[in-house]
Design a protein that fits this description.
The protein is an alpha/beta fold. Helix content is 37%, strand content 17%. The chain has eight helices and seven strands.
């Protein structure tokens, strides 16, 4: 039996070469689990790390009863790690936070307040603590994406989100899809709520993104989304004699 089925909410944490942050993840997410309003577990997705993150993840999961992990055979990228986490999670809701902990696990409480009324709740990073190049590139990419998708999302790159699992599992996945999660939920006529959350500077490790992949990739992916949006298949079953 998949243990995540025993929980209301699974927090997915994609990890790629974040050895310096693994013990912080254990502490901060562990603290959140103790005070969370619902039963919550953590699913660490080791995305082919080569810096010792895998060993630390196994140690953490061995001593923490609500921490689980899956490990890729090789690096697949953030979108692949998110897809794997969603595929393996069996809880009613899934969530996402970056391993750099520039957002606070405790702020999941703010998002969970709206879980029953929305299919997705996503954070908006308040008073961002990134450098000006990162903030400028994000602003440009977000503006272009909003114009292309019409999703109305202010900060799609905020790595603090919760999604109803049945909607998450129907997301059409592709490389770069992590930039379009709200729009992909809206494709299913899902409701999306935006909530301000805290933001902090990166303490350990290095960002996996730079000016080029913050701009070039999202621009190309926007055209892929527009193509897919026109061809997206929706259906509702009115009747069936199948049994569970």
């Amino acid at each position: 039996m998949n243990q995540t089925a025993d929980y209301f909410f699974t927090v997915i944490v994609p990890v790629y070469n974040e050895a310096g942050n693994i013990l912080r993840i254990e502490k901060e997410l562990g603290d959140f689990l103790q005070t969370a309003p619902e039963r919550v577990c953590v699913l660490l997705v080791n995305d082919g790390s080569t810096d010792g993150s895998g060993e630390l993840i196994r140690e953490v999961c061995a001593r923490q009863p609500h921490f689980y992990y899956i490990a890729f055979a090789e690096n697949g990228g953030l979108s692949a790690a998110l897809k794997a986490g969603i595929d393996y999670a069996c809880s009613e809701y899934v969530g996402y936070i970056d391993a750099d902990l520039q957002t606070a696990p405790g702020d999941f409480r703010l998002l969970l307040e709206h879980a029953g009324a929305y299919e997705m709740v996503t954070g908006i990073r308040s008073n961002r603590k990134d450098g000006w190049v990162k903030k400028l590139s994000s602003r440009i990419a977000n503006g272009f994406r909003r114009a292309m998708t019409g999703d109305g999302i202010e900060d799609t790159g905020c790595p603090l989100k919760i999604i109803r699992s049945d909607y998450a599992k129907r997301i059409p996945f592709f490389t770069g899809m992590h930039r379009f999660l709200p729009a992909l939920i809206q494709l299913q006529h899902g409701r999306v709520k935006q909530v301000p959350v805290r933001h902090f500077p990166r303490i350990s490790g290095e960002s996996k993104y730079h000016l080029w992949n913050r701009l070039a990739g999202p621009f190309k992916d926007c055209f892929a989304y527009r193509w897919m949006k026109k061809r997206y298949i929706r259906y509702r079953v009115a009747e069936s004699n199948l049994t569970d």
